Amino acid sequence: MSQVISSHKSDTKSMIALGSNVAHLTKGEARGSIDIVKDAFSAIATDMVTVLAHSSLYRTPCIPDGAGPDYVNAVAMIETRLGAGELLEHLHAVERRFDRERANRWAARTLDLDLLDHGGSVMPGLETWWYWHDLPFEQQKTLFPDEILLPHPRIQDRGFVLVPLAEIAPDWRHPVLGRSAAQLCAALTDAQLSGISRI
Question: pTM score > 0.85 for this model?
Fold first, then answer.
């Protein structure tokens, strides 16, 4: 069940996707993906970042098939005084606290924090955004932008993002596509929703 954390007013509302499919060793004790994602909700919060709400946890198949164990996924809604670049740096710092390694794209990971949306910003611009949006799947495995790309170009394709996003923010509107989270979720195919279950 979604949970409201705070109603503190700050500057920019952002959406963050969380995922984990590898245990993390903390003080000699292995914490599984469910605990890692729960811990991450608190770890994201600082005096500059307020977690307003977060979704339920969902178990979802790893993409691409065979790349690793199933994921635990969720989405958090935050408000922050940080700009997009500063926020992304903060999220990467949180990932490092959970021993996240970025050796291979789409490899199994202890914690993955993706900035989905930052106040409706389109960065670095529409032409670049559409390039990454239209990138064929095979190229997505090996190519990634070297600059901040907002909104995340794969939101509309990913059930493991849209299901929890629509749970806590059904009226959130995609800054480029103009459709709400609820509408994007309703447009997913059975294949895109296959295997996703609330924990």
Answer: yes
Amino acid at 124: P
CATH of the domain at 70: 3.30.70.560
Alpha carbons 109 and 67: distance in angstroms, whole number: 11
| Tens digit of each residue's pLDDT (9 = 90 or more) over 22-79 | 887 776 778 899 999 999 999 999 999 999 999 999 999 987 676 678 999 999 999 9
Q: Which domain holds residue 116?
A: 3-198
Q: How many domains does the chain have?
A: 1
How many angstroms separate the CA atoms of 169 and 54, rounded?
10
In this prediction, residue 145 carries a pLDDT of 77
Of the candidates 69, 83, 74, which has an alpha carbon nearest to the alpha carbon of residue 118? 83
Largest CA distance in the chain: 48
